Amino acid sequence: MAQKRLKSVRILPEVVDNSVLEPPNLNQLYAALDLGTNSCRMLIAQPKGSQFHVVDSFSKSVQLGVGLEKTGKLGRSSMNRTIQALKVCQQKLKRHNIKHMRLVATEACRRASNASEFRQRVFRETGLELEIIEAEEEARLAVISCAPLVSNRTEQLLVIDIGGGSTELVWIDLSNLPPLERPRSLMRMHAGFHSIESPFPAAKVVDWISVPLGVATLQDAYSDVKDDSARYALMSCHFEDNLADFAPYKDEQKKSGFQIIGTSGTVTTLAASHLGLRRYDRTKVDGLRMTSEQIDQVVSAYLSLGPDGRRNDPHIGQDRQALIMSGAAILQALLRSWPTDRLSVADRGLREGLLYAQMSSDGVLEDVPC
After folding, report:
1. Containing domain of residue 294, as a range?
2. Is residue 69 pLDDT above 90, yes or no?
3. Total domain count for the chain?
4. What is the pLDDT of residues 269-290, one digit of tens each?
5. pTM of the predicted model, to two decimals?
6. Same domain as 171, residue 128
7. CA dihedral 183, 187, 192, 195 (to 10 degrees)
């Protein structure tokens, strides 16, 4: 069936610009640190109504998972780079006197045989206590972070979180909820996918999966394939093969009332290229809606550029150019399974989910019953 072409639509982001707000209440600051396979990111924020505004942030590519596929361990250089980044985070946490925080590590630390030694070294050298979270919690936090982008008309929702070492997919049925309750029901998932008894309407998680392939691990798996197009095709097919156990994959879904939300550097980079942004602008990217055809056009342009052209493309950026094709391969594999004219681009993820979950649990957000 022919797909209806839509223009890109931008939804106003929910995270508030801190430049227009009064000085933060230091007793109400929250921090969230996400140490992934490729990056170390942190946000410090203050609750504001049903949202929050960012007081301070940090982001650095540390490539913690380099060599993990071959050795099963975190490398010494990778750990050294990461600890230097964590020292900067520790200084920011101390400067803001943060009392409410969650500092989590994901797939690289889940898989590394020396993760325990690494955590001990981090604590010894920075005083920070990293928490290695399970894949289910990582998926749940991605869903929570995307709640503000869910349309009231959405009945079936697929949230895609493409990370450095893994990709989480969560399929959620919202069809039995009143339209205005659909986004808010996702915020209440801080208690878990299978929530305890609650007087409030609950979203139904139909299925979820954590595929142990992300932009870094998929790139590493095919780094020896010299031909650019062949490598891309192999990566995309390999990822699609790993979706066979995801139950909704076997069902025909209606496009009416169906929404996909994609959260990752891959998705936001594709959106920035689609918009022709020479300088990244979160306010233009977060909440943008793209069609499968628009994504295909951007990926085709990337392939035409080749590795050298992508390295010099200002829309991609130096931090992303080495991993953009493995991320695009994952996204296109997913869109072959679920073509959509409503892919919502989310410049938000685990950090935002951690903040929303902490604030919701503490009851400091308005209009979000716990």
Report:
1. 137-350
2. no
3. 2
4. 999 999 999 888 999 999 999 9
5. 0.83
6. no
7. -70
